[in-house]
Amino acid sequence: MISIDSNFNIEASQYDTYTIRFKLKNYVLTADDKFHFSIKATSNSSDVVFSKDVYNAGQSYVDLAIALGELDTLPPDTYVYDVTIINKSTKKITTLIWSAYYMIKGVAHNVD
Known about the structure:
mainly beta, six-stranded mixed beta sheet, two-stranded antiparallel ribbon, globular
């Protein structure tokens, strides 16, 4: 199960696989744009516990796929995440979402 509220807080079941589509308003990604998703333990922490980069040039959306096992090292808890676009040629960093919650809910099953 996954749910996303109006403040972009994400709640997901532990061990699930899913894809989150991030739609960009009035922006088309270029070949130099990297969509960067990162999860930190707390908002005051600099320790990134998970990150993933996605490229989708020519589109105004990004599909962030969470594959089987990708988040298995994160125990059920509440984390914070942010989303940025980083342009490799201009070095410009644009933060799209910051300090939203990423909650992993424990479940009884585990698929090995």
